[in-house]
Amino acid sequence: MASTLGPSPPIYQATEISIPPRTSSHQRTISHQTFQDASGNKISPSSPPTRGSSLAGNRLSNSIESGWKSQGKQRIPLFERPKSSHFPASESASRESSILKSPTVLASQAYTKTPPEPKPIPMAADPNAPPVVPEGLVNHKQPPWSQAKERILLGPYDYLLEHPGKDIRATMISAFNSWLQVPEQSLAIITKVVGMLHTASLLVDDVEDSSLLRRGVPVAHSIFGVPQAINSANYVYFLALQQLSLLNNPATIQIYTEELLNLHRGQGMDLYWRDTLTCPTEEDYLEMVGNKTGGLFRLAIKLMQAESPLVGKREAGATYDSGEDIDCVPLVSTVGLLFQILDDIQNLSSPIYAARKGLCEDLTEGKFSFPVIHAIRADPHNLTLLNILKQKTQDEAVKRYAVAYMEKMKSFEYSTAVVNVLGEEASRMVSDLEKRVGGEGGRKGAEGIRGILAKLNVPELAVMDPKD
Questions:
Q1: What is the pLDDT along the chain (468 residues), one digit of tens a residue?
Q2: Contact assessment for residue 253 and residue 245, using Cβ atoms and an 8 Å cutoff
Q3: Is residue 288 within 8 Å of residue 280, measured between CB atoms?
Q4: How far is CA 417 from the centre of its chain?
Q5: Measured distance CA(293)–CA(272) in Å, rounded
Q6: Helix H segments across 83-220?
Q7: From CA 206, how far away is CA 223, in angstroms rounded?
Q8: CB neighbour list of residue 315: distance below 8 Å, 6 or more residues apart
Q9: Alpha carbon distances (Å) from 283 to 266, 290, 293
Q10: Which CATH superfamily includes the segment(s) 152-462?
Q11: In 3-state terms, what secondary structure has residue 30?
Q12: CA distance readout (Å), 79 to 27, 67, 69, 292, 438
């Protein structure tokens, strides 16, 4: 039975391309490709299709021709991107300039250095000879670490340092030193170590909390990436330990290790409760705060007491005017609890806090803060707050509903009462330590610490994030 589909389409077969040797001008002369159809007719990309060839052959010819151009006897491919742009030159330059000036690009470029061109690997003269291994490549001595590489590792850390916080810890160290009288050189090292640990811990906190901003600028990991930010933070932990070793005091190394363990214990439990939607008890929460928020406060004071010429040196005949010894750790632990619970209240109820850091930021994070814990445990059968925390909502209407529920459960009143109890306890401890130290030093130290506590009771000054 004869086919009704018409004649078969031509079949094109490519012949071998002839590529002569390079000319003196390093140009190749390429003979243009020819094709044959099913009837054996030769066709050239530049010649019109023979009679009987199909439209497909015509398209093929045009397609091939569009990819080549003639230069005398030479035919070269035209696959280069055209120099002209879809945008005028001035507009294109403006677009490029705006991209290069964006904050993210500028911040990234500040800590990015173009690597040097790699050195060529020496090749053997004889191509059949075994590969040549450069002398010193294997079993060479460890080269000294360069400052250029150091800047690369510290990029995320330095970026955050350029946007400092309120530095509450340095203020507290200065106030307590009126009592502890740590030598200037030792105090400088301790202050530096505490600052390094605090900044490094923020790099990790921002990753674990999926934060977008820190101190009003994009978080470090949004610019340098999560792996580089984490590595930079871990690197600084060990740089701080290296600095601490300059004190030549074994007790400081033990203190450092103990408090870093506490910091990670506190952070680990906080993350576990958030990610598993597990509401802790108030006692568990205060323990977590003591490890996490109070950890750096406590680390600073313990290191200062280890370096103080007076604390714990009674056997050596060095005592305070009163002849008594002192221990500031219980006071600073109480201050750490006070800071955190007050911050929890401010986060959910202060208009000033909301204007600076966003409305009810802790609810969006899904955090079990002190007022939230009280409201949930006040009525365990009501799952309202648990469900809101689960959503990690950014809806302000939902957040305001959650706040109204906590007000109904008197959670803010209860939390404020706990803050007042902690404040009274801290004031009592300050007075007791002032008497123990005695003299001008006792009075001056007490004034400094009372000044810090007083700021917590002023709404405009109370917005002091413990993590800042």
A1: 444 445 555 544 444 444 555 544 444 444 445 555 555 555 555 445 544 444 444 444 444 444 444 444 455 444 444 444 444 555 545 544 544 455 444 555 555 556 667 666 666 667 788 887 777 777 667 788 999 999 999 999 999 999 887 778 888 999 999 999 999 999 999 999 999 999 999 999 999 988 888 888 899 999 999 999 999 999 999 999 999 999 999 999 999 999 999 999 999 999 999 999 999 999 999 999 999 988 999 999 999 999 999 887 655 445 565 556 889 999 999 999 999 999 999 999 988 777 767 789 899 999 999 999 999 999 999 999 999 999 999 999 999 999 999 999 999 999 999 999 999 999 999 999 999 998 888 999 999 999 988 887 654 434 445 556
A2: yes
A3: yes
A4: 36
A5: 16
A6: 89-100, 103-110, 147-153, 155-161, 168-180, 184-208
A7: 12
A8: none
A9: 13, 11, 15
A10: Farnesyl Diphosphate Synthase (1.10.600.10)
A11: coil
A12: 17, 7, 11, 60, 86
Which SS3 state, helix, strand or coil, does residue 398 take? helix
Q: How many whole angstroms separate alpha carbon 253 and alpha carbon 61?
A: 79
C-alpha distances in angstroms, 74 versus 30, 32, 47, 67, 68? 6, 9, 17, 14, 10
Between helix 370-378 and helix 411-437 the angle, nearest 10°, is 130
CA 72 to chain centre: 60
- Which residue's structure tokens are 């958030």? 274
Reported as type and span, the H/E element at residue 68 is strand 68-71
**Burial zone of 151 (CB within 10 Å; 0-12 exposed, 13-18 middle, 19+ buried):** middle
Which among 331, 340, 362, 365 has a CA at the least distance from the CA of 349? 362
Structure tokens at 75: 């035919």
Between CA 48 and CA 6 the distance in angstroms is 23
Q: For the chain, which residues make up each domain, given as ranges?
A: 13-18+31-75, 152-462
Whole-structure pTM value: 0.69
CA nearest to 44, candidates 75, 23, 7: 75
